[in-house]
Amino acid sequence: MKPTRQSGADRLRSPAAPSTGDGIALHVCIGNAAMLRGIYGAETATAFALALAQRIEAGLFDLGAVATIDGDADRIWVGFPPEPLVRDRLPAIVDDLLLLLGSHPVVIDGTPLLAAVSICVETAAPEPRRPASAAAAGDWRTKADMRVAVATFEAIAEGRLYFLFQSITGLLDPGLTLYQECFTRIVDRTTDEELQTPRGFIPALERLGLTRRFDRAVIEGGIAFLRANPTARIGCNISALSAIDDAWWTPVLDGLAAAPDVASRLVVELTETTPRGDIAPILEVVRAFRRAGCRIAIDNFGAGFSGLRFAVAAAPDIIKIDACYVREQAAEAFGATYLGHLVGLAACLATDVVVVGIENDADLVRAREAAADWVQGRYVAPASLSRTAMASSWTPAAGRRPPRPGPSIASAAIRERTAQWARQSRTADEQPWSGGATLGAPGEVAE
After folding, report:
1. Contacts by 5-10 with C-beta closer than 8 Å and gap 24+?
2. Which of 90, 132, 343, 418 could form a disulfide bond with 69, CB atoms 3.0-4.6 angstroms apart?
3. Cα angle value 297/353/356 (rounded, 5°)
4. Residue 89, Cβ neighbours under 10 Å: how many?
5. This prediction's pTM
6. Residue 363 CA, distance from chain mean position
């Protein structure tokens, strides 16, 4: 029997979780807890979960939040008193928790660590998501990735992540612009010197399972730009690893649905850089953004892991042919007509087809011979750096109220509640998991 995803105030209780009377109980899943335990040790993983629990109680002090860590330190149960205020504010509370825990590192013994978190309200937590490559890559790789991820998140918090815009122009009429794609760059705030490109930090975020927080910041930055520039049309990339229909995207989707003029000018570009067997979760996110009013583009068509099956199922508005197919080497390997066949196939699946990677006149000629409508590349439209830092929920520029800090919470109190709950759990009868639901759009049914 399929578990159903409930709506509104019905999605509030977790019978397995400690709660306060008839109050609300959520749980926070630390998706990278097992990885941290394997790389940094059990003590560090437990201290990390303890610090997150302290952050929850301090940040949501005004709501009476009570945090308890489970035995493996990969989940934190959060209980609230039975007050209508908590129920009415549940979506905002969930988002506050996500941002409170997922945006800034926790320092354990001098090492800054980031949490890959999700918030659930089901009778048992789903298996924590952790990148399979992380454990196999070895301690040095994971620790190096964590340093890169911490530096990236700090740059966003400090307002040093900037947009780089590149226009997609008409092949026959360069004066026409389909939209501008947004790339990200970490820069020196005073000199505008480029310090880091996505190639330097995105792989680390992917291996650590931290792409959703970054991609949400990029989408939020794009929305803020569109609000400030009412005639602009832009495209923002999200990784397929971020395409999970859960509480991370709910505020973004709600905001877009409430602002159709903004949503209609945003193109969400799906980039598939790592293999995923199940495309159903990605399709759910695609449909959610489309329902909110956005256009959908598939990036790197022909070179990613999604392939033709995903393109047919996603029914994108725009397909972008990967840059490798316009190169002279590709023409020599596959024949001069290969690009034309690929463009023709893409045209059967999407309204607009873009050939990417136009770096010289020969590339432009090959795109013209392939009968492409749109082209992108530095030869036809060089990218330009925005003079304004990207705004997101990390920064005050987004106008977001940060969670209200409260007094410091004694570690001993959280430890005692955790130990007491663990003792009770050991003596209680085992209850089989009968399914549950993650927070998402009201009334949806979990597949």
Report:
1. 5/437, 5/438, 5/440, 5/443, 5/444, 5/445, 5/446, 6/437, 7/442, 7/443, 8/442, 9/87, 9/90
2. 418
3. 85
4. 15
5. 0.75
6. 33
Q: Which long-range contacts (CB under 8 A, 24 or more apart) does 184-187 make?
A: 184/218, 184/390, 185/161, 185/385, 186/152, 186/155, 186/160, 186/161, 186/162, 187/160, 187/162, 187/385
Q: Identify the H or E element spanning 423.
A: helix 411-427
Q: Which of 25, 138, 26, 41 is nearest to 82 (CA)?
A: 25
Q: Copy the structure tokens of residue 356.
A: 């990417």
Which of 244, 240, 210, 208 lies closest to 34, judged by CA? Answer: 208
Task: Choose among 294, 275, 274, 276: nearest CA to 285.
Answer: 294
Distances (CA, A) of 104 to 55, 158, 187, 213, 238: 11, 11, 19, 10, 20
Mean pLDDT of the chain: 77
- CATH of span 147-396: 3.20.20.450
* Domain boundaries of the chain, sorted by first residue: 8-130+402-427, 147-396
Instruction: Transcribe 133-186 into DSSP letters.
Output: HHHHH-HHHHHHHHHHHHHHHHHHHTT-EEEEEEEEEESS-TT-EEEEEEEEEE
Q: Which residues contact 232 (CB under 8 A, 6 or more apart)?
A: 180, 225, 226, 265
Polymer length in residues for the chain: 447
**pLDDT over threshold 90, residue 265:** yes
8-130+402-427 in CATH: which number? 3.30.70
The pLDDT tens digits of the residues spanning 108-159 come to: 989 999 999 988 754 333 344 443 333 434 566 788 889 999 999 988 888 8
Q: How confident is the model at residue 192 (pLDDT cuts 50, 70, 90)?
A: low
